[in-house]
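I am still learning, so would you mind making up any protein sequence you like and the tokens describing how it folds?
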Amino acid sequence: MSPLLLFGIIIGVILLWLLFTYNSLITLRNRVKEAWSQIDVQLKRRSSLIPNLVEAVKGYAKHEKQVFENVTKARSALMGASNPHQAAAANDILTGALKSLFAIAENYPNLRASENFKQLQDELSDTETKVAASRQFYNANVLDLNNSLETVPSAWIGSMFGFKKEDFFKATEDEKRDIEVKF
């Protein structure tokens, strides 16, 4: 075997490895983007349910103006979020505002008995479950991408082509606290 042929084979193998590694990083990055879009879809679904929920509660609790304003502001912040960090922060604020809204609803038995209100609560609950599943899927994809960007040899290729690690969609401090159950 001639040295020139051997050199050509080695260069070919290196180029194939480079191409394979680059393509796998592209695939991982696209999976993270797709997973984020699933979270975004669920957060937008949640956001679109909120005006109906607010209107349902408003009819019963006209004097709770501040709570309604907080929910509306938090919803607007979530809709205006342009990246996972902003969306996570806005989601945290919205979750707190919704807790206040549901606390108000507890004071109005007729509202709690309303079929429309129950349906809205069920839809929000279903959406929360979907958000949680989407967050889990997103974080799994972020883990795969970040692992590839931190392990050799793909870390070399990643840094050469400007790939960046992604941040996880983390639970809020409120979500980490134990739930207090009273009977």
Remarks:
- The chain has one domain: 36-164.
- The first helix runs from residue 3 to 58.
